[in-house]
Amino acid sequence: MSMSFAAQVNSVMAALILLTSFGLLVQRRILGLIHLFAWQGLFLCISTAIVGYITGMHHLFISSLMTLSFKVILLPYILYILVRKLDIRRESETLVNIPRTMMIGIALVIFSYHLTAPVTQLSTMVTKSTLAVALATVMLGLLMMVTRRHAVTQIIGFLAMENGLFFAATSATYGMPMVVELGVALDLLIAAFIFGIFFFHISTTFDSLDVEQMAKLKEED
Amino acid sequence: MTAYSIGIEILQILILLLAAPAFTGWVRTVKCRMQGRTYAGICQPYRNIVKLFAKEVILAENASWIFRSTPYIVFGVTVLIGAIIPFISVDLPFAATADVIALVMLFAIIRFFTALAGMDIGTAFGGMGSSREMTISSLAEPAMLMAVFTVSLAVNSTSLTHMVNVIGHGEFILRPSLAFAVLAFIMVHLAETGRVPVDNPATHLELTMVHEAMILEYSGRHLALIEWAGMMKLFLFSVLGLSIFCPWGIAASGDPAGLFVALLLLTLKLAVLGVVVVLIETGLAKMRFFRLTEFLGVAFLLATLGMLSFFILE
Questions:
Q1: Which residues fall within 8 angstroms of residue A128, CB to CB, at 6 or more apart?
Q2: Is B81 helix (H, G, I), strand (E, B) or coil?
Q3: Contact residues, B window 261-300, toward A, CB-based 8 Å cutoff
Q4: What residues of A are in contact with residue B181 (Cβ under 8 Å)?
Q5: Which helix (H) or strand (E) holds B149?
Q6: Do A133 and B312 touch (CB under 8 A)?
């Protein structure tokens, strides 16, 4: 595999990551969201491995393997178990209708391209062009957290944001130091457990995972 | 313009006229097989056309010239489009007359006249079909143009022959933008040719018809021309997609020996494409009409993402 072809494959992976984050934005069903999240993790893992291959940095292979085990297998599995235990089948409601969300998403992609354009002009790395995609993935994850009501969907948005950050680290500086990456991975895992406990509490207290219900906590005056 | 290129032009139009019903027949046959029904064979569309030509034309009393001339306009424009898309050789004198944007507009002319004819008689179903068709096309056309623009950006031209030359005979580059454009094009293809998630071509229920509702009042040779043009439209959208996104095998300029290979590959590609269309049709259910904004919105989104990823990643 020649270097230029590897770089092309890397851009295809970046495009696929962008596609999956739009998929997360559009998808209504929770199981579909979990599948899309797993796919995004897989593309991220392949992309990291390719960057590791191009640059010859071996610690990227380790983080690629970590991505595979955490974001493709473990986290989707935990989410799947949660969804099944909590028996969520209903389609999750969106605050803004889906075509409009997509338009906002496109605007966010253009914005992040505009924002990273000066950085990419100065950078000499092979992965410089994917930085805009990484930033867009972070913003799309944020948009997903803002536009969805369902707690589980918001968490998936949060995890997608983390995917974007990881991708940004890979494309801007060829990955974070190993210690930081291990720390983040562990944090995510702990967070997933805590979210799970919270979900149980929310669903037993309010009989629903719709975060709008949380407004009931307010005291009447 | 040489005799060779004129020969190619005539050959292409003949292929279009003769192969389009066979392609439709192939799609129907595969679909029947896939759904476990008995099938009438690939030649059934020819028999239908011949039968309709032999039948008498019945016109409504208040039919105007629009209603009477629409079949000929639709048929003529469809053949013209067939003369523009280079699907067996790039030696096509007509291809220089219209680029891909003009091509989209030619498709719009067909739709415009069909919609007018649907409303001309004044029956409820015709008007409903026209209104739906225009709604769908107002959503599908921007997506189609965006997909086409993405390809134009990648090859620096809107000319179809140039696209075929650059993508088919140039160096192979992995382009994410084209992958997005292909997906958008497939979705628009389904919407424009009235396939399942958008419109059911085989429906007999007036309330769900879109294209069929507009041509409900036609009979005899008028109906034959419109049906034939409809089959050609399916064929043309397919070869347009193949010429833009998968042009490998189309004969290069001044290469008569390549024609045979081109024909063989075209048949093969169309056969595969027919199976793909059937798989999509069998796998998906027809969408609720108000969900179509989402379906075509996704097509537009994909095409726009293709364009953006061209700027960002390439």
A1: A119, A120, A171
A2: helix
A3: 293-294, 297-298
A4: none
A5: helix B124-155
A6: yes
Range of the domain at A175: 3-217
For residues A159 and A161, what is the distance between their CA atoms, to the nearest angstrom? 5
Closest-CA distance of chain A to residue B176, Å: 5
- Residue entry with tokens 């008689």: B121
ipTM of this predicted structure: 0.81
**A 144-183 near B (Cβ less than 8 A):** none
Please answer yes or no on whether B308 and A110 come within 8 Å at the CB atom: yes
Searching chain B, which residue's CA lies closest to the CA of residue A129?
Answer: B313
> What DSSP state is assigned to residue A148?
B
Beta-carbon neighbour count of residue B146 at 10 Å? 23
CB atoms within 10 A of CB B158: 18
Mutation pick from B171, B180, B312, B314 vs chain A, by most beta carbons of A within 10 Å, is B312
More confident residue, A119 or A211: A119
| Pair of tokens at residue A140 | 């799309």
pLDDT digits (tens, 9 = 90+) for B102-145: 999 999 999 999 999 999 988 888 899 999 999 999 999 999 99
Counts for chain A of helices (H) and strands (E), in that order = 8, 0
Across A61-65, A119-123, A152-156, B291-295, least confident range: A119-123
Given this model, what pLDDT does residue A221 score?
Answer: 55
Write down the pTM of the prediction.
Answer: 0.88
The count of structural domains within chain A is 1
Q: Can you tell me the distance from the alpha carbon of B279 to that of B33, in angstroms, rounded to the nearest whole number?
A: 11
How many other CB atoms sit within 10 Å of the CB of residue A204?
A: 9
